[in-house]
From TrEMBL, chain A:
Provenance organism: Devosia pacifica
Record bears the keyword ATP-binding: yes
Family: Belongs to the ABC transporter superfamily.
Keyword terms, alphabetized: ATP-binding, Nucleotide-binding, Transport
Membrane topology type: Peripheral membrane protein
GO cellular component terms given for this protein: ATP-binding cassette (ABC) transporter complex, substrate-binding subunit-containing
Matches recorded under InterPro entries: AAA+_ATPase, ABC_transporter-like_ATP-bd, ABC_transporter-like_CS, ABC_transpr_MalK-like, ABC_transpr_MalK/UgpC-like, Mo/tungstate-bd_C_term_dom, NA-bd_OB-fold, P-loop_NTPase
Stated name of the protein: Sugar ABC transporter ATP-binding protein
Domain ABC transporter: 3-233
Coiled-coil segments: none
GO biological process, one term: carbohydrate transport
Compartmental location: Cell inner membrane
SMART domains: AAA
UniProtKB/TrEMBL annotation, chain B:
Keyword Membrane attributed: yes
Family per record: Belongs to the binding-protein-dependent transport system permease family.
Cellular component, GO annotation: plasma membrane
Name the record gives this protein: ABC transmembrane type-1 domain-containing protein
Domain ABC transmembrane type-1: residue ranges: 237-454
Localisation: Cell membrane
Family annotation (CDD domains): TM_PBP2
Gene3D superfamilies: MetI-like (1.10.3720.10)
Regions that span the bilayer: 42-64, 240-263, 275-295, 324-344, 378-397, 433-458
UniProt feature, compositional bias: Polar residues: 16-25
Organism: Devosia pacifica
GO biological process: transmembrane transport
Length: 352, 471
């Protein structure tokens, strides 16, 4: 079911957390709400689920305006960060609860619970209480409980935050698999860019109650609209260097380095201060415009090494390269930057 | 001591340092062990005040109650020893209980003997010394069977008093009876009985001696009396009704209702509301009961309101059995409700907010949320309040004492109040410590039994298990 937020506004007492936000989620799509803590992404999710009342604007499920409906009537499934399983009920009873409260028959409930348990692979744990389940199993029970009554929308609030690294990797693909098998429209709230990029069809990046950009993960990585988005996505993160426009070229501040303007970028005025974003993978041995500096740090990542290169001005660029043994800390290197992949931002953070 | 990134030389130094340090390490362990042994008496010393308090205020009362309950102590017997006194009443009682009238008769008889002791008694009683001298000269060592023959002898003496009344008074000190005489020991009393009634059978003598003892004795009569008095059944029924109604309707029922109501209220009004419900608890109990009197008495608030509404108006506190019951149950209930309210409120706040959100999203109505999510998780506090309050209600009587005082009639009397009255506040003045202690002991045993049943019923062990859920 498609979801639409129109001029959605949310205030707590007198603090406006979200002001006139617009968002559209397509049918069957999984969308990530990505942003730093306090940006309003969880608030948005809770408003969609009906737990928070909206203070302005509308929330549409399909054609229907649900803004004034209580959460009981919205038919949404929510997975909370701590799973919020009922500790006094077994996994089976937890999953059956949404069906029981709407008065479904015992046999029908049993059928539905077993079907959904098979989907999330927890058939053998149904008689256990949450206290006897591992984090990953609790997560699956929470998913099953959210999905069992076939909601129009699945909302996931930081579902992986409480899991250890290995389980997180496993549940990432599991949640995606279940979402795709059921074809349900899903919204995932997360502050982890890797989660957002690996699980979702599209990402909406939020900051301070506003959506900065909505795009597919690849597109957003390649074409961030602002410096904030460019800085938020990418691991290891992008390096920013201050500079000034000078005709068709960019002069980096205080360094004797000139880079060509990337093709397709809007031309800044001469002498205008700009910010150049250089991702680690476009700075390396493969030619382009040369930049010289001293290797200040080497981070071993196993398959690759990450080199920090300090420019004479003190600015630091990062380069990620297959492991090589000829470079160590303190070495003077001159590596090239692929000028077409450079990102140039104006002083206020918008992409040129 | 795990050190990474050290050169082999460093490692060598460290490992040798390690080997060297093994001996001191075991020394340290040994020293630590010795140290622990040294500190254990200190621990006992630290515990001593708590142990002393425990013994003084928990065990001693129970032990004393147990001891008292197996005696017939009353304010008549006193709590120290007694003496042997045979009274005319006692003899009459014994006769009723089947002693031969002749035996009783023989005990109540008197002997008149003229001896040094009798002369001293007479002198002390103010009999004329000349007369006494003559008696000593003429009659010393004589014994008389009755007063008449003694008086006849006295009339022959020259210094005898002129008036018959004075003569009788002078004769009195020479007459001796064991009636109303205090004997300090059983032997003394036995000797006296033997001298006055030599024909009394040993069996009868023992019966008389036991009955004549004024101090307390060991006995199980208290429990027999409790088991056989019809009043016991009524007290048990009343106590069960009182505890049951107060506990279920108010301490748990109202407490739960208030806690849940406050939980769903906005914060400020919830706080004010809960403070209001604390007032009965913080009001001094005498003041509180006086207010209830004003509230329910003939010209009190409730009857006046009822009169204006055309409802029956009378002294609700003492005017009828149902209203008296309603009064004591609600009066106690309002005090106890705040306890449950506070405990349940705390437990409610401990339920993660997201669980409640989850149940709402799952489609649960507010009632279903309370019934299916909240109440099951309040099992432990409900157990605690039930257990704690039923025990405190079992032993509480002061509110009833101060209001209905068990009335009308004896209809609202409860076990603890009766025990208190019997042992400590008896209208007739004879306080029956032993019987009261027996009643109190029954209460203690009942309380212990109830606690064990509660703990079993609510599977206490499971409840206090370490929670496995991480939040």
């Amino acid at each position: 079911m498609p979801i639409q937020l129109q001029d959605f506004t949310k205030r707590f007492d007198n603090t406006t957390v979200i002001e006139r936000m617009n968002l559209e989620v397509h049918d069957g799509e999984m969308l990530a709400l990505l942003g730093p803590s306090g940006c309003g992404k969880s608030t948005t999710l809770l408003a969609i689920s009906g737990i928070h009342r909206v203070n302005g604007g509308q929330i549409l499920f399909g054609e229907e305006d649900v803004s004034e409906q209580p959460s009981q009537k919205r038919n949404v499934g929510v997975v909370f960060q701590n799973y919020a399983l009922y500790p006094h009920m077994t996994a089976y009873q937890n999953i059956a609860f949404p069906l029981e409260v709407r008065g479904m028959g015992r046999e029908q409930i049993d059928k539905e619970v077993r079907a959904i348990a098979a989907l999330v692979h927890i058939e053998q744990y149904l008689e256990r209480r949450p206290g006897q389940l591992s984090g990953g199993q609790q997560q699956r029970v929470a998913l099953a409980r959210a999905l069992v009554r076939k909601p129009g929308v699945l909302l996931l609030d930081e579902p992986l935050a409480n899991l250890d690294a290995k389980l997180r990797l496993e549940m990432r693909s599991e949640i995606r698999r279940i979402q795709q098998e059921t074809g349900i429209t899903a919204i995932l709230v997360t502050h982890d860019q890797v989660e957002a990029m690996s699980m979702c069809d599209r990402i909406a990046i939020m900051n301070e109650g506003q959506i900065i950009q909505i795009d597919t993960p690849t597109e957003m990585y390649r074409n961030p609209k602002t410096q904030f988005v460019a800085g938020f996505l990418g691991n290891p993160p992008i390096a920013f260097v201050n500079g000034r426009a000078s005709g068709e070229a960019i002069r980096l501040d205080a360094d004797e380095v000139t880079l060509p303007l990337p093709t397709g970028a809007r031309r800044p005025k001469d002498g205008e201060p700009i910010v150049v974003g250089i991702r680690p993978e476009i700075f390396g041995v493969n030619g382009g415009s040369p930049i010289g500096g001293r290797v200040s740090f080497v981070e071993t990542q196993g398959r690759e090494n990450l080199y920090d290169v300090a420019l004479p001005s003190g600015a630091v660029l990062r380069s990620i390269q297959p492991v090589r043994h000829d470079i160590s800390v303190g070495d003077q290197v001159t590596w090239g930057v692929n000028p077409d992949a450079l990102m140039v931002f104006s002083q206020d953070g918008t992409r040129l | 001591m795990i050190v990474s990134n050290t050169t082999s030389a460093e490692r060598g130094i460290r490992s040798s340092a390690l080997t060297r340090s093994t001996e001191p390490a075991t020394d340290t362990v040994r020293a630590a062990r010795k140290g622990r042994a040294r500190t254990s008496p200190l621990g006992l010393v630290m515990l001593a005040p708590a142990l002393a308090l425990l013994v003084a205020f928990f065990f001693a009362p129970v032990v004393l109650t147990t001891i008292f309950s197996f005696t017939n102590m009353t304010s008549a017997t006193g709590i120290s020893g007694g003496a042997y006194v045979i009274t005319p009443n006692l003899l009459r009682d014994l006769e009723w209980q089947g002693m031969a009238p002749e035996a009783a008769q023989s005990l109540s008889g008197e002997t008149i003997s003229v001896d040094e002791a009798a002369l001293e008694r007479a002198a002390a009683a103010g009999v004329d010394p000349d007369f006494l001298e003559e008696i000593e000269d003429e009659l010393l060592g004589d014994e008389f069977d009755d007063a008449r023959s003694f008086e006849r002898e006295l009339k022959t003496l020259p210094s005898r008093p002129r008036r018959v009344r004075d003569l009788k008074l002078a004769a009195e000190p020479f007459s001796q009876s064991i009636l109303n005489t205090r004997f300090a020991t059983r032997d003394e009393a036995a000797t006296a009985i033997a001298s006055i009634a030599p024909d009394l059978s040993a069996e009868d003598r023992n019966t008389v001696l036991s009955a004549a003892y004024t101090g307390w004795v060991w006995t199980t009569d208290n429990f027999e009396r409790l088991a056989t008095t019809p009043e016991t059944a009524r007290l048990i029924t009343n106590t069960a009704l009182y505890v049951g109604f107060t506990l279920s309707l108010f301490n748990v029922g109202l407490g739960l209702f208030l806690a849940i109501a406050i939980f769903y209220m906005p914060k400020t009004s919830g706080t004010i509301f809960s403070v209001l419900w604390l007032l009965p608890r913080i009001t001094p109990v005498v003041l509180y009961t006086v207010m209830w009197k004003w509230f329910t008495w003939d010209d009190g608030f409730l009857p006046v309101v009822a009169e204006n509404l055309g409802l029956p108006a009378f002294n609700y506190m003492k005017g009828s059995v149902p209203t008296a019951w309603a009064t004591i149950v609600s009066l106690n209930g309002f005090i106890g409700a705040s306890f449950g309210m506070i405990l349940f409120s705390g437990a409610l706040r401990a339920i993660p907010q997201q669980q409640l959100w989850a149940s709402e999203v799952d489609g649960a109505s507010r009632w279903q949320q309370v019934r299916r999510i909240i109440l099951p998780q309040l099992r432990w506090p409900i157990l605690f309040v039930t257990c704690y309050q039923s025990l405190s209600l079992l032993s509480s009587y002061e509110q009833i004492w101060l209001t209905t005082n068990g009335g009308p009639g004896n209809t609202t009397n409860v076990w603890a109040l009766e025990a208190f009255r019997v042992a400590l506040s008896n209208y007739t003045g004879n306080l029956q410590y032993g019987y009261g202690a027996a009643m109190a002991l029954v209460l203690v045993v009942a309380g212990l039994a109830l606690s064990i049943i509660f703990l079993r019923l609510f599977r206490f062990n499971e409840l206090v298990e370490k929670p496995k859920i991480e939040f």
